Amino acid sequence: MKLYRLLLLIGTLTMSDFASAQTLRLTEGWQVETVNGWIPAQVPSTLMGVLTANGMEPEALTAADYARIDKKQFEKSWRYRTTFHIPSLKKDEHVLLSFDGICYRANVWLNGRLIADKQEMAGPFRQFEFDITKETAKENELTVEVFRAQPGEPSIGFADWNPRPADENMGIFREVRVKVCGNVAISHSAVRSRVNTQTLDEAWLTIATELRNLTDKEVSGSIQGTADGQPFSYPIRLAAGEKCRLTIPTEIHIEHPRLWWCHHMGTPELCDLHLEFVENDKVSDAEDIRFGIREIRSYLTDEGYRAFQLNGKEVLLRGAGWTDEIYLRDTPSTNRLQLEYVRDMNMNTVRLEGFWGNSQNLYDLCDELGLMILVGWSCHWEWEDYLGSPTEEPYGGIISKENIALVAQSFEDQVMWLRRHPSIIAWFVGSDRIPKPELEQCYRQFLSKEDDRDYLISAKGQVSELSGPSGTKMEGPYEYVGPSYWYLPEAPGGAFGFNTETGIGAQLPVKESLQKMLGDQLFPVDRRWDILCTASSSEMNSLKKLNEVIHYRFGDAKDIDEYLYRADMLSAESTKAMFESFRVRRSHTTGIIQWMLNGARPGIYWQLYDYYKQPNAAYYAVKRANAPLQLIYDYHSKAVYAVNETLSPARLQASMRLLKGQRAIQESRQTEVSPAMAVKVFDIDLTGSPAAFLFLQLTDDNGTVIATNDYFLPAEDDTYDWANTNWVHTPITRYASYAMLDNMCDKSCQMTTKKIAEGVYEATVINRSDKVAFMTRLTAKNPQGELLCPAYWSDNYLTLAPGETRTVTCRIPTAPKEVLFSCF
């Protein structure tokens, strides 16, 4: 009893905790009931998140850990509870209780009175708001009983990316808020913008919001405020109990607007909107949001490919697929770290296959960092194995009248919740399939009134009877293909159109992370690794393919270091070529999304950094591939191209150095490349040697290095069996050999470091040998020998020509007094 009273005291919040809009987020002081009593919890959370935080379930999802979890415990309902304090209400004040996301059903009691039951509160992507004025006291106890999803119910899902969460993400996984306001409440405010895309010197803003009359009488007043400093006011009447979605009919004209751009095209400027409802000269409620002035356009090219323009400028989408942590435990700090990684890799887009995030923080950060987002439903509902009920071609599993109504309303709730974010450029209403016409019609009617972004019917090349072709493609691969694949005209996943998800399968973490997952005994690679692959029952559930490629490219590895070195090379060069090919073939490409960006749990498939947030070799390859100005080798035409993803023409000095055995061929020339263009600069002759190294460099008029790039190029090409291509990959019938690499390379580099600013270090790497130093990895560790995270290297996994010296920087935001650097 004493412990319970203490927890209630900790959980009690007063009006001093309320923001200026009189809103309280109920985050701390929660408890969850177990068979052994109540345990502390936070919200947002899932039950597995709560249980792991209390040491009652295993943290890491190794094979042994996952087997130990008792899934039957989640077949029953679980209860959360907390308390909060509300001062005495004044006349005409009301109290609202809001839930942004509960999985999957819930009963809710306030002070012992049922205010909502599980029939009403169902669906994780529904949002609920209750007027609790009459039920509220000064001291309040809130109890929420949650129930997990049943087969056939459209819940949160990870498909085959990883094992299903044991609790099916059951819990209060998004924010809970209490708001005190006057007679009329404001929510879901947003600003739509039009831009003069010819001059970029003017824009027009439209204000939209949602109003709710909390009384049983008509209320008259005005909605007023400022948008980017420009005042507005609009009179309105609300009937008793009316809920009104309002779009103010008069546009606000802005001269010389501060535009929102994705980061490689400009500055992601953000503006402020302040909105009030005023009744009888008294503010009833207010809302403050940040918005961006930008115009996004989606269209089909002459070749039928889905493309985008931002503020009238063509933009090639270059990104990767996001997933939340398996127990939905992402925080503002982990979100920021990951999105800064996306920006550091010079990507401009994040694709969310799902409406991810346990708050709006993920989207706020994309607004701030200038990252575009594609948001929408997961393929989890489109396959019977994952949904748990029959599906129908080509519509997936949302086919019943009840599920169509639920998902249509869920989509409305999600769009209204997120529509203020300029970073969101389109809504995916299908992944592998398309929505049933009855469902799509609901989407169309809603969006035509409340949002100005396009919806995409599918991430796959599908056609809707209502909206026509998707203009996208999802033809794989999802397993290894060589770097030349992406350039070949026969390759279905190659460099044309908008490839919404594709990748090369296994992308192994660094050795230090693998030791956390598997222990120190990492070699030989055995079946213990399989649980770290995908959860697919048919494909990509072992390292069979990677082992095959290593065997035919190099021969079998003799130890774990050699194995990882070879795996890193395969991952880096093919992932780099994937992005580069879409830049070189710019006249035929509109977007490329790596599948995936991150891992929901400890894993070794489809990731550019691992569960512990350590970048892998592919991370730095992608960073190099996406440099705004870059020189790129085309494996098919055997030529080098200059590419430009900025908004300004570039006049640069391009240099190439080709090492063919003991011979070195060098060439340098001026090149000019316009925005969104690729220009041929050099032809590369590989004859006369079994393999070569190609080093490329761009410099400006002052000799400052703008970008570098490098390639290992065997003279022979991979041979593909196009006739046996499937959704996973295209088989390689003859592999180009990399066996000569061991004789061509030397890794005995030397490195010196110095501190140049607080948390910033400069590392100089010297290759004193007469051989190429290939894929030299640089690390920064604390005195205990642990990798520091984050450590932002300007470049890593370096390839240095004989005698070359390279200087890079390393920024460590939380650097200890002593940092240990090494290269190997």
Please describe the topology of this protein:
Layout: H1 2-11, E1 23-25, E2 30-34, E3 37-41, E4 45-46, H2 47-53, H3 63-68, E5 78-85, E6 94-99, E7 105-110, E8 113-116, E9 128-131, E10 139-147, E11 171-172, E12 176-181, E13 184-195, E14 202-213, E15 219-227, E16 230-238, E17 243-247, E18 252-255, E19 271-279, E20 282-291, E21 296-300, E22 306-310, E23 313-315, E24 317-322, H4 332-344, E25 349-353, H5 361-369, E26 372-376, H6 384-387, H7 401-418, E27 424-428, H8 437-450, E28 455-456, E29 463-464, E30 468-469, E31 497-502, H9 511-518, H10 544-553, H11 560-584, E32 589-594, H12 617-625, E33 629-634, E34 639-644, E35 650-660, E36 663-673, E37 677-683, E38 691-699, E39 705-714, E40 719-720, E41 732-734, H13 741-744, E42 750-757, E43 760-766, E44 773-776, E45 778-781, E46 792-793, E47 798-800, E48 805-811, E49 820-823
Parallel strand pairs: 24-25, 24-32, 25-26, 26-27, 27-28, 31-32
Antiparallel strand pairs: 1-12, 2-3, 2-5, 4-11, 5-10, 6-9, 6-12, 7-8, 7-10, 13-14, 14-17, 14-18, 15-16, 15-19, 19-20, 21-22, 22-23, 29-30, 33-34, 34-37, 35-36, 35-38, 38-39, 40-41, 42-43, 43-48, 44-47, 45-49, 46-48
Helix pairs in contact: 4-5, 7-8, 11-12
